[in-house]
Specification:
mainly alpha; globular
């Protein structure tokens, strides 16, 4: 039971962190220059963005859950099961970020989900 709960934390915190960071990056705008000073200025702006810190906190929680899971379960189960983040990521992108998900992308996500189910069963 602890593995299932920890996996849910990994999945939701990881996806939540990705969505929060994506939201922050959309607010910050496109990176247009990779000159060292431009990168430093962009990072300075990024670290003043609240959504960035929310994302970092959630991703840190997800990493801790991943470490715990890897100490309890086989990597051959944990890593493929993490592919379910494609489902939660697509749902989060659609409902929180307003992204359009094409039918072809949904089909791909469905195929990944079937693969995860096969790994979990056997």
């Amino acid at each position: 039971m602890r593995s299932v709960l920890t996996f849910v934390v990994l999945l939701l915190a990881g996806t939540g962190g990705d969505i929060a960071v994506a939201h922050a990056m959309k607010r910050l705008g496109e990176v247009t220059s990779f000159a060292p000073m431009a990168i430093l200025r962009f990072l300075g702006r990024a670290f003043r963005e609240g959504w960035m810190w929310i994302g970092i906190a959630q991703l840190t929680l997800a990493f801790g859950a991943l470490l715990a899971l890897l100490s309890w379960e086989a990597v051959s189960l944990v890593v493929p099961a993490m592919a379910l983040s494609y489902v939660t990521g697509a749902l989060g992108g659609k409902y929180f970020l307003g992204e359009q998900i094409t039918p072809r992308r949904w089909l791909g996500i469905g195929l990944v989900s079937v693969g995860v189910a096969l790994v979990a069963l056997g």
